[in-house]
Specification:
The chain is an all-alpha fold. The chain is built from 16 helices and 2 strands.
């Protein structure tokens, strides 16, 4: 029989348990990962990466020049490791040796991509202005790779964008990387190169507007409206729809939103609101929307950067369900880490994430945004 005295005791137990759960889960931000939660994943990742590092300090350089090394360095530095730690210092030294006379940071190809990610890495390690000159020169180099507007329809379509190298067809992914790098290199949000890049990104959005008058945008399905695609040309895209439109992709949409927010575009801007609306409809940490498991870790890192810049936590999806995205992303990464400490995407078809060095670098970058803010 539950007497009043016993009831009082049980009630006190319930209250204490409730308070404990509330304390553990951070009140209205339940279960956000702490540094203590995240550190074991980072440590295991670093142990794995040390077994993969080449004698010259690089990671997977034969496949991508300094690009993958830069992703790894940026991830480790953002996760709190010092640039003076031997393995990281050696990787940074390799990046420094990859600086060319023209200011780019590349080997033989992928000059835009590798310079952009190297800028992000060196920015994270730029203590006391050590890399100011390298960053400035790299920014000028990247500006020189930007497509200018010509007289043909194609040149007008490509204007403002960035591809893998000078003269190569621009795409959404490279252009988003470059916007982030230009800003990291010290360009202002009002710099013409940044403004022109945003014009190209706008042409990759499934949204008819003053900034995008491409025919494909008017043919976007309700499911694609507001999202971003890879290249804004159905004739040159594997993501064309039967109706003449282009499929929106998760990694590209978060990359577009990130770029707009980083470059100071107002959250009330029609393009930003449309991108957020698409994300609410397609919110997930289980796949890269529009591409399934392909490019999953690339998706995680653009997801994390965009959500961090947006500043909504919890984030409500289109059905009104609230998602504590830091916890959900952290949990997704926890269950995918391999016993040896790496991440790898065996299902990847387009992003090279079968290489565990690249997948692990992206995973570490993503983890760096998961920790609860103090």
């Amino acid at each position: 029989m539950l007497t009043p005295a016993r009831f009082a005791i049980v009630a006190s137990w319930v209250t204490a348990a409730t308070c404990f759960v509330s304390a553990v889960h951070g009140g209205d931000q339940p279960g956000e990962p702490t540094a203590k939660d995240i550190q074991p994943l980072i440590d295991k990742g670093l142990v794995f990466l040390k077994t993969q590092q080449a004698a010259d300090g690089s990671f997977s350089a034969k496949r991508a020049g300094p690009g993958i090394t830069a992703v790894v360095v940026a991830g480790l530095l953002r996760c709190g490791h010092s640039p003076k730690e031997p393995a990281i210092a050696k990787a940074i030294e390799y990046l420094e040796k990859s600086v060319q006379k023209d200011g780019g940071i590349y080997d033989k190809a992928l000059a835009n991509y590798t310079t952009s990610v190297a800028v992000m890495a060196l920015k994270e390690g730029n203590k006391d202005g050590k890399y100011d000159s390298i960053l400035k020169n790299a920014g000028n180099f990247l500006k020189g790779l930007q497509h200018e507007e010509g007289t043909t329809d194609l040149s007008k379509l490509n204007a403002g964008g960035f591809g893998y190298d000078k003269g190569s067809r621009p795409d959404m992914s490279n252009s988003a990387f470059t916007v982030e790098a230009l800003l990291a290199a010290g360009l202002t949000k009002d710099d013409p190169a940044v403004k022109k890049a945003l014009e190209f990104l706008s042409k990759c959005q499934n949204l008819p507007s003053e900034q995008n008058k491409q025919p494909f945008a008017t043919k976007a399905t309700a499911d694609d409206l507001g999202g971003f695609t890879y290249v804004p040309d159905p004739k040159d895209s594997q993501y064309a729809t039967p109706g003449g439109g282009l499929r929106s992709l998760g990694g590209m949409t978060y990359g577009g939103l990130k770029s707009f927010l980083y470059a100071g575009v107002d959250k009330e801007d029609t393009r930003v609101k449309a991108a957020i609306a698409w994300i609410r409809k397609h919110y997930t940490v289980e796949e890269n929307p529009g591409m399934g498991q392909s490019g999953l870790y690339y998706y995680y890192h653009t997801f994390a950067k965009a959500m961090d810049a947006l500043g909504e936590n919890p984030f409500a999806d289109a059905a009104g369900k609230k998602h504590f995205w830091k916890r959900e992303l952290f949990d997704a990464l926890v269950k995918r880490q391999q016993p040896a400490g790496s991440w790898r995407n065996a299902a990847d078809k387009a992003f090279g994430e079968t290489d565990p060095n690249l997948a692990t670098g992206f995973a570490l970058l993503s983890l760096s945004y998961c920790q609860a803010k103090k």
